[in-house]
Amino acid sequence: MSKRLPELLISDIVDSGNKILSYTNNLSFEQFVSDSKTVDAVIRNFEIIGEAANRLPEDFKDLHLDIDWHRIRGFRNRIVHDYFGIDYSIVWIIKESFLPGMITKLKSLI
User: Fold this and answer.
1) CA–CA dist 77, 89 (Å, integer)
2) Residue 65 in domain
3) How far is CA 46 from CA 13, 22, 63, 78, in A?
4) From its phi and psi, is residue 41 left (phi > 0), alpha (psi between -120 and 50) or beta?
5) Which of 16, 50, 76, 77 is least surrounded by Cβ atoms within 10 Å, i.e. has the fewest?
């Protein structure tokens, strides 16, 4: 397990989530997929989110069941192990519908 404290891992997740939102601010989906640097940055930060979530102690995650840790880790595994098969529309949907709420919940844990 990680030697980083849970609070630091949560901060890593929030920071990476905020970067994703910042990088894609005012972009349409079409603009996003046509900008390879932004796509790469967003994918990398989703990887960081998943890795940090994976390193959180199980007892910490058990205290915060309102966060879908399994889905966060699963998405990370999907983009890491199937990089050339990433569906950017799914990345966009997660960024739009899941990420802002997750950031809000996690900020309250810091």
Assistant:
1) 17
2) yes
3) 9, 13, 23, 11
4) alpha
5) 77
> What is the torsional sign of CA 49, 55, 57, 58?
positive
Does residue 41 lie in a domain region?
yes
For 6-58, how does the pLDDT look when each residue is reduced to its tens digit (9 = 90+)?
A: 999 999 999 999 999 999 999 999 999 999 999 999 999 999 999 999 999 99
pLDDT band at residue 83 using 50, 70 and 90 as cut-offs: low
Query: Which domain covers residue 29, as residue numbers?
Result: 6-107
End-to-end CA distance of the chain: 20
Considering the domain boundaries, does residue 1 fall inside one?
no
Tokens of 55: 């390193």
Please list the alpha-helical segments (H only) found in the chain: 6-24, 29-34, 36-55, 58-63, 69-81, 88-93, 99-107
**86 found inside a domain:** yes
For the annotated catalytic residues, the residue numbers are: 76, 81
Q: How many domains does the chain have?
A: 1
